[in-house]
Description:
The protein is 62% helix and 4% strand. By secondary structure, it is mostly helical.
Amino acid sequence: MSSNQLDQKSKAWSALFSEPMSDLVKRYTSSVAFDQRLWQVDIAGSLAHADMLAAQGIISAQDHQDIQKGLEQITQDIAAGRFEWQLDLEDVHLNIEARLTQLVGDSGKRLHTGRSRNDQVATDVRLWLRGEIDVLQGLLTDLQRALLDVAERHIDVILPGFTHLQVAQPVSFGHHLLAYVEMLARDTERLTDVRKRVNRLPLGSAALAGTTYPLDRARVARALNMVDEHGEPQICQNSLDAVSDRDFAIEFTAAASLVMVHISRLSEELILWMSQNFGFINIPDRFTTGSSIMPQKKNPDVPELARGKTGRVVGHLMALITLMKGQPLAYNKDNQEDKEPLFDTVDTLKDTLRIFVDMMGGLTVNAAAMEKAALKGYATATDLADYMVKKGLPFRDAHEVVAHAVKTAQVLGVDLAELPLATLQGFHPQIEADVFEVLSLRGSLNARNTLGGTAPAQVKAQIARHRARIST
Ligand code: ARG
């Protein structure tokens, strides 16, 4: 294709084509509207490729220099918003290449030697995603830190722990928040693992079968920092797989979906805790909205929206995995559809995490309401059973004795700790005055002093462990 032909791709790809595309088909097949955000990595990939072509004597030093100069000019133009993106030129790759040729002539046309858009786009998406994963890892750490700060301030605040959304046992609010830190820590691990498979070089696979030029793929991999922790170049080893594989995008989106699922679970709790029936917490007003009709309302819109956006990200995972199903080797145009779901997944995740870091930082806690709620529902019944076991009763029998005690307390409308000692002794003679410490919320909390338990000593130890983990 000559440069002015490339400029007017609408006419035809080459002499082979006898009719132009309709505007509708042009719009349908073009990706430049959304893939232009790959411009920086596209140029980085081209610079690495050109440097290698020159080092291998495939293009001249002069061509290399021209290409570098032209791409530098294009970088400045795009960064300054001066670049004219053309729908006619289909995608980011053809737009940049056509402009390069316009700027530097035949040298520009030599850039695509030993390369195809198939290995080019796969490389671009991987480079872009690698950078975004690094940003996301930072945000996940920020959110863990924000949660740790709130947890640390509320180690001794007690709220009812639920199973089946029924009051189960008292837990520390700090401990509760640390459950989310665990989830986010696993998310971070998952992304670290995904990143290893993202950070592999397809370039050099050309269209699908490799190329006849003596390329140095390792040099390109090193230039693009596609290396492992020992500095070994990471190169896709099968050209057919390299140009068609999008597993890395799918597994990233799966990991992102789990992040959103965790955010969604946290959101659900924030929403419940904020409701008048709980009254446990408040989030700053800037994350809420009012109602146009009910003047008293303050709605937790941000957590609700985050819960809703989880559906959007999980939808992208479905889109990507379905996109790959049944695709024969090697590259198929289907793969152009990988970009919007992937981009939107990253955008949604970044916004959500940034907002949550800020929102968790502004969380306020109503400790009295939490404790009051923990006093409802016989949250220390298990502690009474454990107390009897320590007196020698088999656990199953103790369970039964306590069930009777709870039934009596329910009838009287009081808590277990409010039953007189004589009444308690009626259920079992071995119950003594020390039972009241056991029946208290704080006694119950302190007693759960096993690794991973809710006793303040354990929560403190976990916070220290997380802080050390995050600071490395
Ligand atoms: N815009 C295309 C994409 O996003 C680039 C690769 C096109 N390759 C091709 N053989 N049509 O996948």
